[in-house]
Specification:
By secondary structure, the protein is α/β, with parallel strands linked by helices. It is built from 15 helices and eleven strands. It binds pyridoxal-5'-phosphate.
Length: 470
């Protein structure tokens, strides 16, 4: 088979998959052993044709593929892929650009520059902020906190990149008690320590309490300090009070970082922008494109209000790079990777396709679907005593807790909620996961897929009601 025919066949398989995606059982029933049988075995001594490998991969992987890109996947915060972004991603693979250097791909460098600027604008971030295209919000948090570590060390006269942290002046790190796990992982990787953080108390929605932040900062006066705030709690969708936090950080002289993996996208909507008021006053921001922008994995973004600190923390120095250094935008200077995929094309294509209005619409539609989940579940017969929505639905996240049919104590509500989640996952109409929110078991619904309709929400609600015997 010619390489052209091979790629046409792959496109045909992909198109068939996408056509069936909305009606495919959403979860996968494959066990690890099932998949090991499919993919396992010894490395063959002699290879086989590309066409046969492609057919085998497509057929055999299928039972282990989860319909996360489909309209009724509500697990974690995942997002699907806009067709235009999938198409751009195919081209990205075909072009096989190494996006590290300008000279390796002037096209990607310019796509990133433009898309980065559009996003700064959508999120309301400062025009001069630098941007890096990374694998996800974990890498974005890491990159941003590396920039913070640089700037805070430099203020104490310490070159942390050259000398490391041995003997360095200490940086105090302040996080909300509900900071995402990847903030802690970033601290762990940066030598700032996952457990030496000062944790600030939160309210019932998971929002940092600014009075508690003020109390935490007071004894840290005069010390280099990093404050990590959050836009969009992974369970409730709630936002830390960013304007109040920015005031306190400014008074203290702290570096303010905002983890806005999906919450930063609220800034793209006129109706939701109030949730991120004050966000532009931070020093660094981390977000995802593979969640709410609906581009294929993997795609995240880091922004920094201090480009010198951002670059100093992540750039590499080598004589053989001298031909481009400093003249054009070398993407590797803003990310932890050196060689990497040209993620700029899919992000650029998605934004160009949606436009400002389309991004706002995508975000607002997801939020209205989340409210519909809350309304419909609470309106079910018998729901008054058996369904509890644990969060204020301010964004795209819904936490639901179920009591068993006969009523029952709070422990049985924990068990019953987990049982309902298990039944829904098995049923296959939709998929969502469980969580524990402030000590209570809950079903966690996240709406972040471009293709989800109100009818999908209603089908999912019906499946959940069946599972909960409502
Ligand atoms: C998803 C998420 C992350 C991590 O993002 P990845 O893309 O999985 O690396 C970080 N913070 C928050 C608030 C998130 O929701």
């Amino acid at each position: 088979m010619s390489s052209e025919d091979l790629l046409r066949r792959a496109a045909e398989i992909a198109a068939d998959y996408l056509e069936q995606l909305p009606e495919r059982p959403v979860g996968s029933a494959s066990s690890a052993d099932d998949m090991r049988k499919v993919f396992g075995g010894a490395l063959p001594e002699v290879g086989e044709s590309a066409a046969s490998v492609l057919e085998m991969l497509a057929a055999k992987a299928d039972p282990g593929i989860v319909a996360t890109a489909g309209p009724r996947y509500f697990g974690f915060v995942v997002g699907g892929s806009l067709p235009v972004a999938v198409a751009a991603d195919w081209l990205t693979s075909t072009w096989d650009q190494n996006a590290g250097l300008f000279v390796l791909s002037p096209a990607n460098s310019a796509a990133e520059e433009t898309a980065g600027g559009w996003l700064r604008d959508l999120f309301g971030l400062p025009a001069g902020a630098s941007v890096g295209f990374v694998t996800g919000c974990q890498a974005a948090n890491f990159s941003a906190l590396a920039a913070a570590r640089h700037a805070l060390s430099q203020r104490s006269g310490w070159d942390v990149e050259a000398r490391g942290l041995y003997g360095a002046p200490e940086i105090a790190v302040v996080v909300g008690a509900e900071a995402h796990v990847t903030v802690h992982t970033a601290l762990q990787m940066l030598g700032l320590g996952r457990e030496r953080v000062h944790r600030v108390a939160v309210d019932g929605q998971g929002r940092m309490l600014s009075a508690a932040l003020a109390r935490t900062l007071a004894p840290l006066a005069g010390r280099p300090t990093l404050v990590c705030a959050q836009a969009g709690n992974v369970n409730t969708g709630a936002f830390d009070p960013l304007a109040e936090i920015a005031d306190l950080a400014a008074q203290h002289g702290a570096w303010l970082h905002v983890d806005g993996a999906f919450g930063l996208w609220a800034g793209a909507s006129q109706h939701l922008r109030e949730l991120v008021r004050g966000v532009e006053r931070a020093d660094s921001w981390a977000t995802d494109a593979h969640k709410w922008l609906n581009v294929p994995y993997d795609s995240g973004l880091v922004f920094c209000a201090h480009p010198e600190a951002h670059r100093a923390a992540l750039t590499a120095h080598a004589d053989y790079l001298e031909q481009t250094a400093g003249r054009e935008r070398d993407p590797f200077e803003w990310v932890p990777e050196f060689s990497r995929r040209a993620r700029g094309f899919a992000v650029w294509a998605a934004l160009r396709h949606l436009g400002r209005g389309g991004v706002a619409d995508l975000v607002e539609r997801s939020c209205s679907h989340a409210r519909r989940f809350g309304d419909r579940l609470q309106a079910a017969p018998g729901a008054a005593t058996r369904v509890e929505i644990l969060n204020d639905i301010v964004l795209n996240q819904v936490l639901v807790r179920f009591a068993p049919p006969a009523g029952g104590d709070s422990r049985s509500a924990d068990e019953y909620t987990r049982e309902v989640i298990r039944r829904v996952q098995l049923d296959g109409t939709c998929w969502l996961s469980g969580t524990t929110w402030q000590g209570k078991a809950a079903m966690r619904i996240s709406v972040s897929n471009w293709s989800t309709t109100a009818a999908d929400v209603d089908r999912a609600v019906a499946a959940i009601r069946r599972a909960a015997e409502l």
